[in-house]
Amino acid sequence: MSAPKKLFIKTYGCQMNVYDSERMAEAMGADGYTLTEDQSEADMVLLNTCHIREKASEKLYSDLGRLKPLKAEKPDLKIGVAGCVAQAEGGEIIRRMPLVDLVVGPQSYHRLPAMARGEAPSVETEFPAEDKFDHLPPRATRRAPTAFLTVQEGCDKFCAFCVVPYTRGAEISRPVARIMAEARDLTARGVREITLLGQNVNGWHGAGEDGREWGFGRLIRALAEIDGLERIRYTTSHPNDMSDDLIAAHGTEPKLMPYLHLPVQSGSDRVLKAMNRKHNAAEYLRLIERIREARPDIMLTSDFIVGFPGETEQDHRDTLRLIEEVGFGTAFSFKYSPRPGTPAAERAEIDSDIADARLQEVQALLSAQQRAAQESMVGRRLSVLFEKKGRTEGQMIGKTGYLHSCFVDGPQLSPGDLREVEITHSAPNSLAGRLVA
Ligand code: SAH
Ligand code: SF4
Ligand code: F3S
């Protein structure tokens, strides 16, 4: 018998890529590959790429450049490019970097083992009619207490700046039965918290177990009935897909964590319109109000793009005002990056230094809000899902419902335990607490 082959995967970008990388590793596992963390001993290197901003895309080419000596040393080494750059650039990647053996887009991962065996074309970037997940092997054995589960893929929103509708294709929802089966299976393997994933996860819909059309809120309530599954999260959502039923679920479903990532991108109506976001600032604020009525202790997070084409000083101040009005637990903010093929890439960019300065201002405000939100946890009693041992003897680390890391002294605890903790201290990147008897 030949020695098992080794697969090294590097994952860039969003959580959907993290999930896809796991599924690709499982698919290759069926072909005799085991994962390695050491690139130099790999028989195959797979780069699962992100195309969202220019910097993210460029990383692929610098990483490929760095693989040249390894490929020279090991001519049999297979190098594969997966993910959103693979989808966007296809065979162009091999022309530019001939050391690449195969290019596989996000909807074709079930083809990967055949491609690696040389039994399928070396470039697969079609959007096939079948669901790739139907053709991928079931999830692997031992699990951490938390897991991702992709329920929806693709995007039909076409925000003017964004490549996702082109790299991930049209919105598709996975069927209820598949999602329920995967969630039950994960829970049976020790998973206590599932994060449902999708580029527009709250746009998920499908025929339910009762034969009726279900929305995303209904799906969450069905998942919440699974014994042993203690926590449910979801990301990323579009404001326009926050249905009444989903908002209500935040108030009635204790397993749904009091945490919501709801990107708004800008606080200026002019910019939101130019971005083709299909909501204005007032609508977003009203939505936040309704979500907080359903779940007063919810923590909100968001994404912002700063320096979008045409953004004025007034638009920028509108964004700062929206941030002040909402009060976010944390948020990501990015300098606008023109992406090939998107409508906004045709428009004149604003001065780069001005955009940098605005980004700093937005980030300073968001950081202050983040610190305040974390410090406000001191004195509260929160449930913590423990994930692993800490660095000091007897210490355990877990996460609160708000996704803050929390340390306690708990030598008796195991990963997967959920305990009530009184928060005693807030450090820059974590909380400390003591177990409530
Ligand atoms: N589906 C999600 C996330 C999309 S990508 C949503 O609708 O919000 C994650 C974030 O990247 C976006 O929310 C946006 O803030 C940022 N982003 C997307 N395209 C970008 C671009 N061209 N330049 C800068 N940031 C961008
Ligand atoms: Fe991109 Fe907009 Fe779709 Fe989000 S909703 S993935 S930002 S096009
Ligand atoms: Fe990046 Fe594709 Fe995710 S572009 S953010 S990896 S959907």
Please give a structural write-up.
This protein is of the alpha/beta class and 437 residues long. It is 33% helix and 24% strand. Strands 2-1-3-4-5-6 form a six-stranded parallel β-sheet, sandwiched between helices. The chain has a five-stranded mixed β-barrel with strand order 17-18-19-21-20. Strand 17 and strand 18 form a beta hairpin. The relative contact order is 0.08. The mean pLDDT is 95. The site of iron/sulfur cluster has 10 residues, from helix 6. FE3-S4 cluster (F3S) binds next to helix 1, helix 3 and helix 6.
Please report the total strand number as a whole number: 21
Bound molecules: S-adenosyl-L-homocysteine, iron/sulfur cluster, FE3-S4 cluster
Radius of gyration: 22 Å
Q: What coarse outline follows from CA principal-axis ratios?
A: globular
* Total DSSP helices: 13
Strand content: 15-25%
Give the uncertain stretches in residue-range form: none
Binned, the helix content reads 25-40%
Our measurement of the CA-to-CA distance between the termini, rounded to an integer number of angstroms, reads 54 Å
Describe the largest sheet: 6 strands, parallel
- This entry's quaternary arrangement is single chain
Strand order of the largest sheet: 2-1-3-4-5-6
Question: Structural class of the secondary elements?
Answer: alpha/beta
Name the average pLDDT.
Answer: 95
Question: How do the helices and strands line up, and which of them pair or pack?
Answer:
Layout: E1 5-11, H1 15-29, E2 33-35, E3 44-49, H2 54-73, E4 78-82, H3 83-89, H4 92-96, E5 102-104, H5 112-116, E6 123-124, E7 146-150, E8 152-153, H6 164-167, E9 172-173, H7 176-188, E10 193-197, E11 205-207, E12 213-215, H8 216-224, E13 231-235, H9 244-252, E14 259-261, H10 269-274, H11 281-294, E15 299-306, H12 313-326, E16 330-335, H13 352-375, E17 381-389, E18 395-400, E19 405-409, E20 418-427, E21 430-435
Parallel strand pairs: 1-2, 1-3, 3-4, 4-5, 5-6, 7-10, 10-13, 14-15, 15-16, 19-21
Antiparallel strand pairs: 8-9, 11-12, 17-18, 17-20, 18-19, 20-21
Bound molecules: S-adenosyl-L-homocysteine, iron/sulfur cluster (SF4) and FE3-S4 cluster.
